[in-house]
Amino acid sequence: METVTRHKVTRPPNREHQRVQKLRFYSQLFSVLVNIWIGVQFYLWVKKIAGEAVWINVPRPPGVEGWLPIGSLVSLRYWWESGVVNTIHPSGLIIFLTILATAFLFKKGFCGWICPVGFISEMLGNIADKIWHRRLKPPAWLDWTLRMVKYLLLGFFLWAILVQMTPKSIEAFVYSNYNKVADILMLRFFTDITLFALSILAGLFFFSLIIRGFWCRYFCPYGALLGLIGLISPTRIKRNPSSCTDCKSCTIACPAFIKVHKVKEVVSDECIGCMACVDSCPVNKTLEIKVIPAKKTVSPVRWAAILLIVFWGTLLTFKIIGPWQNSITDTEYRQHLPALERGEYIHP
pLDDT tens-digit profile of 62-118? Predict the structure, then answer.
């Protein structure tokens, strides 16, 4: 990267911005803590079933299946074709469907308000702002080229799962030994990380300190899918040109580099629904969140509250009434461990 376009970082003039963005910070932090808690509990549970810590008495946390999006996409197709929610990783499917639903209702609000990876990416972006005192963005031709990578990755997964795989191969995958222990294999990726994988993560970390949202903007296929769904969302951020002073506060505040001050309506696959543009506008009712076709204006706080209630409320409801828990017993998991240790379970 030889040339970059620079955007100065300034504090938005609207004090309401601080309240809404603090709410967003605590929402993201809550999600991170929930995922850390799930990760620690899952790690201890694996230790327990492996006989390495028999004194630990923790159940397997079903929420860990939220980190298996590819398997959840396979489960989605299986459910669509058979009408059956498989009992191997049911919570993974529920979490996946809930995220897709929030993308339709709230654009990429999941990315901006809930996703723990997005939160880490933003924190690195904030550090980068302090290091460089400016926001760095590649030139347009390079930015567009890199942004296509996540859509190529998304296209590959959609083609492989929705087109290439037959109904029989879908069913075989769902009930395969590999899929049954996919959660443990995912854990092993982090606990027994290879030098190559560690190098990739280090590279992503490094470039995230140069370009804000490097992973999310260029390589996350999950974000690509949510961005496409968000384009048809009834939520719209609209700008009133007649009252706009062209101060560019909205564009400066946008972490996705969207030139909000130049459009009447924000239509972008990169918009994460952070509401920084709306909150930073110094002129009342110039930038507003509207819900079509009713054209009803919604405040950023109310919009965020509804998003969080829908997301966490849906997951809590299914946790209570099901389907949520998988059907694999600790004994069956334990029986799979020797073959897993021998490396016999590979992606089918």
Answer: 999 999 999 999 999 999 999 999 999 999 999 999 999 999 999 999 999 999 999
Is residue 21 situated within a structural domain?
A: yes
- What is the arithmetic mean of pLDDT over 226-244? 93
Is residue 240's pLDDT more than 90? yes
Q: Are strands 296-298 and 235-239 parallel, antiparallel or unpaired?
A: unpaired
Amino acid 21 reads Q
Can you name the residues that pair with 236 across neighbouring β-strands?
290
> Would 346 be classed as within a structural domain?
no
Quick check: pTM over 0.70? yes
Q: Is residue 348 part of a domain?
A: no
140 inside domain: yes
Compute the residue count for the chain.
348
Average confidence (pLDDT) over 262-273: 93
Domain range enclosing 208: 5-341
Q: How far is CA 1 from the centre of its chain?
A: 27
- What's the total number of domains in the chain? 1
3-state secondary structure the chain: CCCCEEEECCCCCCCHHHHHHHHHHHHHHHHHHHHHHHHHHHHHHHHHHCCCCCCCCCCCCHHHHHHCHHHHHHHHHHHHHHCCCCCCCHHHHHHHHHHHHHHHHHCCHHHHHCCHHHHHHHHHHHHHHHHHCEEEECCHHHHHHHHHHHHHHHHHHHHHHHHHCCHHHHHHHHCCHHHHCHHHHHHHHHHCCCHHHHHHHHHHHHHHCCCCCHHHHHCCHHHHHHHHHHCCCCEEEEECCCCCCCCCHHHHHCCCCCCHHHCCECCCCCCCCCCHHHHHCCCCCCEEEEECCCCEEECHHHHHHHHHHHHHHHHHHHHHHCCCCCCCCHHHHHHHHHHHHCCCCCCC
The answer to whether 64 touches 160, Cβ cutoff 8 Å, is no
pLDDT, average across residues 29-48:
96
